[in-house]
Amino acid sequence: MRILLLCWATVMMPGLLPNTSVAEPVWKKHVLQPANKTTGNVNTVVANDWNHDGHVDVIASFNGAVLLLPGPEWKKHIVLYKFIDPRSGQPAKRGCIHSTLMDVDGDGDLDFCGSNQTVFWLECPDQPLTDTWTYRTVDDQIKGTHCLIIGDVDGNGKMDLIANSGRGPDQTDFPFSLTWQQIPANPRKAKAWQRHVFADRDAPGGSHYTGFGDVNGDGRPDICCAAKGGEKFPDGRWFAWWQQPEKLGKPWIRHLLAKDQVGATNIQPVDLNNDGILDFAATRGHGKGVLWFQGPDFKLIEIDPDIEGPHCLALADMDQDNDVDIVTCGHTTSGLAVWYENNGAGKFLRHLVGTNQGSYDVRTVDMDADGDLDILIAGHFSNNLLWYENPLDPQPKVKSFLAQADHLALSHSFSAGTLADHFDQQHFTHWSVKQGVLTGTPAPQEKWQGGHGKVPALQVNHSFHNAIIQTRFLLDQARSVKLVINASNPKHGKYHLFRVTVTPKSLVISKDPDPGADNRDKLTLATTELQIAPAQWHTLTAELVNQQVLVHIDGKFLTAARHEKLNVRKSSFKFGMAGPVARLDDIRLYHAKPNPLP
Question: Cα-Cα-Cα-Cα dihedral of 444, 447, 452, 454, to 10°?
Answer without folding.
Answer: 20
